[in-house]
Specification:
The complex is a heterodimer of chains A (about 120) and B (about 110). Chain A has strands spanning about 5, 10-15, 20-25, 30-40, 45-50, 55-60, 65-75, 75-80, 90-100, 105, 110-115. By secondary structure, chain A is mainly beta. In chain A, the strands form 2 sheets. In chain A, strands 2, 4, 5, 6, 9, 10 and 11 form a 7-stranded mixed sheet that branches. In chain A, strands 1-3-8-7 form a 4-stranded antiparallel sheet, with no helix packed on it. Chain B has about 110 residues and is mainly beta. Chain B contains no helices and 11 strands. In chain B, strands 2, 4, 5, 9, 10 and 11 form a 6-stranded mixed sheet that branches. In chain B, strands 1-3-8-7-6 form a 5-stranded antiparallel sheet, with no helix packed on it. In chain B, about 40% of the residues are buried. Classes of the chains: A mainly beta (about 120), B mainly beta (about 110). The interface of A and B includes residues 46, 59 and 107 of A.
């Protein structure tokens, strides 16, 4: 149980295009989902926290107009990287907290974004 | 964002050896979590600690929540090649999912068969 999926697992796009990444909790409902970014050989850095049906809370230094987050249901959150540039190339990972065990976070497998 | 101080940054050990890594913070955390991340994958939860002084095992893994609530350690006994990966500690200040996790910088473990 407590499986989180992400789609796509990797994406290559041209500079200036927008990319949407989906995060789904497959066998549980998640009241809260989190989006992280991880650069090579570095730790996970929280980008934003999203609660179903409300606006996401962004961490300091993360542009909310560039990284659009939509948490439309209790099992789906999406991250859209708008007008992507090479410096946005990174490993994006989501996590979800089950409504029945809000102390825990289960992570997705990540999405590798490469912007040319 | 803030990170926990995790050490060592990397370890290269012989198969069968025991491993120890730890995380420290200047702030108190109410929850400590240990994750393992394989290349190109998301972190997988290994052990969760909820009480100061708590000692919890998961197979060959043992982790403890420090009494001061400012530190935690993870031990791996009798390491095997599949233990290779990056281990992250993470702390949470509050007891609800609204409080974010703060991650350590990671410990890269390499095991020589």
């Amino acid at each position: 149980g407590a499986v989180v999926s992400q789609h796509p697992s990797w994406v290559i796009c041209k500079s200036g295009t927008s990319v949407k990444i989906e995060c789904r909790s497959l066998d549980f409902q998640a009241t809260t989902m989190f989006w992280y970014r991880q650069f090579p050989k570095q730790s996970l850095m929280l980008m934003a926290t999203s609660n179903e049906g409300s606006k996401a809370t962004y961490e300091q230094g993360v542009e909310k107009d560039k990284f659009l987050i939509n948490h439309a249901s209790l099992t789906l959150s999406t991250l859209t990287v708008t007008s992507a540039h090479p410096e946005d190339s990174s490993f994006y990972i989501c996590s979800a907290s089950p409504y029945y065990s809000y102390n825990e976070q289960f992570f997705g497998p990540g999405t590798r974004l490469t912007v040319l | 964002g803030q990170q926990l101080n995790q050490s060592p940054q990397s370890m290269f050990i012989q198969e069968g050896e025991d491993v120890s890594m730890n995380c420290t913070s200047s702030s108190i955390f109410n929850t400590w979590l240990w994750y393992k991340q394989d290349p190109g994958e998301g972190p997988v939860l290994l052990i969760a600690l909820y009480k100061a002084g708590e000692l919890t095992s998961n197979g060959r893994l043992t982790a403890q929540f420090g009494i001061t609530r400012k530190d935690s350690f993870l031990n791996i006994s009798a390491s095997i090649p599949s233990d290779v990966g990056i281990y992250f500690c993470a702390g949470r200040r509050g007891n609800n999912a609204g409080n974010m996790l703060t991650f350590g910088g990671g410990t890269r473990l390499m095991v020589k068969p």
